[in-house]
Amino acid sequence: MRILKNMIRQPSALFGLAIVALVIFMAVAAPLIAPYNPDEQMFDGLTLEGAPLPPSAQFLLGTDTLGRDLFSRLLYGARTSLIIGLVANGIAVTIGLMIGILSGYMRGLVGNALMRFTDLMMAFPALLLAIVLAALLRPSLWIVAMVIALVNWVQVARIVYTETRGLVERDFILAERSLGAGHLRILFHHILPHLMPTAIVWGTLGIATTVLLEATLSFLGIGVQPPTPSWGNIIFESQSYFQAAPWLVFIPGAVILLTALSFNLVGDALRDILDPTQRGRG
Amino acid sequence: MIFLILRRLVQTALILFGVAAITFLLLYALPADPARMIAGRSATAQTVANIRHELGLDQPLLSQFWNYLVGLTEGNLGRSYAQKTDVGALIAARLPATLILMAAGIFVEVALGLILGVIAAVRRGGPVDRLVMMASFVGVSAPQFVAALLLLYVFAVTLAWFPMSGFGTFAHVVLPATTLGILGAGWYARMVRSAMIDVLNQDYVRTARAKGLSSVRIVFRHALPNALLPVIAMIGIDIGQFMSGVVVVEAVYGWPGIGQLAWQAIQQVDIPIIMGVTLVSALAIVIGNLVADLIAPLIDPRIRAR
Hints:
Structural class of chain A: mainly alpha
Oligomer: heterodimer
Number of strands of chain B: 0
Structural class of chain B: mainly alpha
Helix content of chain B: over 70%
């Protein structure tokens, strides 16, 4: 509650929250709001020459090259983006937390090996690694989520590692240990709770990264495959036609931008609220 | 100092070895069968077996890895499935175009970031300051391919100031380089701003002011050099971002570099090419970080003293 109150006080965070709420609403209520079936190729959705229709009263945001309603496709696309955002990012944060905690807590061979592996993964450009995995695995919605998770855990692991190293040195952990607490108790009762703010912040910021990565993969043709609508593949399907029908590229583009921006704004505000020492740092 | 450099070189070599190992494992451990892909769909089992033998795919994993490493040291990145040519040669032929694009993109990003960051720091709370803070967020939230298509639509299709695509003249570089640099510029500006503000609050800057130095001289002589260090470190870290951006930007603008090569390879599931580009990119990232680390003490005597 305190967090929410603090957030509403900042205009940018409030804006972010509102858009995030709107996107979630779009995704959940898609079947109720969508004026048409997103996959239906409508006869009156194309001009006589077979070109897509610009925005009008009948088709709010116009139609795509196959005569499908863009507004309806965007609503269902919100589902794809949010499912991937939540699943991929949930897995990424979980992997990052586990590897970060373990390598930060365990001295010696295992901890070192885990951290060197993380450093190694940082040497790969995220998009290219995702491209390799997606190209090898023949993408579907869940594969794309997995691929993004396998690429995005690295940063979380690095940050959690640094924080865990700091926590292990603190007196209260030393006190616990001298009282005879086991490793598991220290890890889960004393270290993990302190890492929750970090996990929440990165869980939110990561959704923005995930939405962008999914859109980019789909734009390159190796993300979510049509006819399942995703914001990225809507643009992928229309890009060769974008000079004649710019709305097909720029409306979904604006939706992706707004969504990613909102998750970034909310994540940034959360960081300020949960960790005042980070306030104002870039 | 020399010990430090040696240690970083050894670390870099180890990371490169790890990069090669991971690339190898991805290439051979995942479900796609390279021999079948080269042979094509209609090939007989015998042909596939022959190709497998020719490529050494019937050998044990470790000796395959050894052959792969030996090949890498000779610059052998394997053969393309679709183009049937040497991947190393394909990449080498296209690398210069990518390097030009990256250099131009980094220039746009850093130049914009420095200018905006300095103005924002000097005029704190002013309109440029607020613009920088907003732009940094919008920039990292914007999909690069949409920015590319937007610039293309406005400046090439509608205004016809620049060519739609291609390579060769200065006009061809402008839009791709701007796409590559503009989104991250806000973030650089933010960093320059906070570094500058830290410095501007220091005693020696107050002394300089008290001496009667002009504010232009204070900003450019005393404050800016201190703000450059994080920028250089950031460029080193950012090489990865640039390599990712290059794939998208080259695909949209038809820029004949390794990003376009990778993009075409994606369409044909030509895995050796994708792997080769990934490996070269990883190499660029590792070298970028190394160079940033090695340049830092040259610029900042405080690091040298440590």
